[in-house]
Amino acid sequence: MRRLLVPALPAAALLLGLTACSGSAGSAAPASSGAAGTVSVVASTNVYGDIVKTIGGDAVEVTSIIDDPSQDPHEYTANARTQLALSKAQLVVENGGGYDDFVATMLSATTAKPRVLNVADVSGYDQEPAEGEFNEHLWYDFPTMVKLTDQVQQDLSAIAPDRAETFRTNAAAFTTKLEGLEKSEETLAAEHRGTGVAITEPVPLYLLDASGLVNRTPEEFSEAIEEGSDVPPAVLQETEALFSGKKVGLLAYNEQTTGPQTEAVLAAAKSAGVPVVGMTETLPAGLDYVGWMQRNLDAVGGALQG
């Protein structure tokens, strides 16, 4: 798996940055200090930031560390402003599973002791399976998002018990919307179960699997792309043959992580007339989580309808 990396910043440099930041005006997304009476939350990505804001409403102030939909999340670089946000957080939401280890690294450089919600732990999945690798892209897994919703409302209620009823009400409404997404997956499965698909990375695999689709991409290809290593020529040819041989109904393409080999696969799909569905790791501008995932599902369905 490819992790979101943070440079090894000396503790002294981090502390110096905190001192400088605390006395300056800023832009960047620093909502973490929290207005009076609100809960300060830091999320590793804007996906989780949006979910927390949906549940917490005006009772929370949320900072999303990675929030640029045009950036490769794996190229994230830490800064003192992010460190400051973490030092003031009451609740921190991280994906876990090796995806965003920088959160723990940065927290260790502060004296803060916030509640830390690890989504991989909440999922209940085996993070060290006997076969294959754990898929850490959990925001594409709606059952895990239901579990996350419940845990977020519990944690927020523990921090701000006077707003607990609001958190429960918002969480229930959000869960209903998540269940709607699961029904969309069931509809896709009923119509297209067993259809082959290809991917550049395992980012959307939970969604594709739940929709009854079968990933036919050579495992060596997606693993190499995710690890940032070269794909063996024979494996690249095998992957491209999926399209020329009409063995898959679509290509799910990670738009935030591209390179010569993923672009070669993209070109092969387009040349063969195989539909391409763009997927991302962070929330696109102008969409909330449910709207984003419904758009993904609609795009998959539209591609398979031909």
Question: Which descriptors apply to this entry?
Answer:
Rossmann fold; 8 strands; 4-stranded parallel β-sheet; signal; metal-binding; 2 domains; 12% strand; alpha/beta; single chain; 306 residues
What does this structure look like?
- Strand 3, helix 4 (102-107) and strand 4 (115-118) form a beta-alpha-beta unit.
- The two termini are 32 Å apart.
- The chain is globular.
- The strands form 2 sheets. A 4-stranded parallel sheet has the order 2-1-3-4, with helices on both faces. Strands 6-5-7-8 form a 4-stranded parallel sheet.
- The longest helix has 29 residues, at 164-192.
- It folds into 2 domains: 11-180, Rossmann fold (3-Layer(aba) Sandwich), CATH 3.40.50.1980; 193-305, Nitrogenase molybdenum iron protein domain (Rossmann fold, 3-Layer(aba) Sandwich), CATH 3.40.50.
- By secondary structure, the protein is α/β, with parallel strands linked by helices.
- 48% of the residues lie in helices and 12% in strands.
- The chain contains 12 helices and 8 strands.
- Pfam families: ZnuA.
- Residues 1-27 form the signal peptide.
- Keywords: Metal-binding, Signal, Transport.
- Its main location: other.
Regions with little confidence, pLDDT below 50 for 5+ residues: 5-33
Task: Give the percentage of residues in beta strands.
Answer: 5-15%
Radius of gyration: 20 Å
Question: Any idea what the shape is?
Answer: globular
Q: Walk across the major sheet and give the strand order.
A: 2-1-3-4
Q: Averaging pLDDT over every residue, what do you get?
A: 88
> Which homologous superfamily in CATH is the superfamily of the largest domain?
Nitrogenase molybdenum iron protein domain
Order of SSEs, N→C? HEHEHEHEHHHEHEHHEHEH
The count of domains is 2
Give the CATH level 1 class of the largest domain.
Alpha Beta
Task: Enumerate how many helices there are, as a single number.
Answer: 12
Q: What structural class results from the helix and strand content?
A: alpha/beta
Q: Fraction of residues in helices? A: 40-55%
Gap between N and C termini, in Å? 32 Å
The CATH topology of the largest domain: Rossmann fold
Please state the second-level CATH architecture of the largest domain: 3-Layer(aba) Sandwich
Please give the largest β-sheet. Answer: 4 strands, parallel
Can you count the beta strands?
A: 8
Keywords: Metal-binding, Signal, Transport
GO molecular function, one term: metal ion binding
Signal peptide: 1-27
Protein name: Zinc/manganese transport system substrate-binding protein
